[in-house]
Amino acid sequence: MKNDTLKGQHRINEQIRAKEVRIVGDDMEPAVYPIAQALKMAEDREADLVEISPNAAPPVCRIIEYSKFLYQLKKRQKEQKAKQVKVNVKEIRFGPQTDDHDYNFKLKHAVGFLQDGDKVKAYVFFKGRSILFKEQGEVLLLRFANDLEQYAKVEQMPLLEGKRMTICLAPKKAGASKKNDADAAKKEALKKAAEAK
Question: What are the residues facing 170 on neighbouring strands?
Answer without folding.
Answer: 153
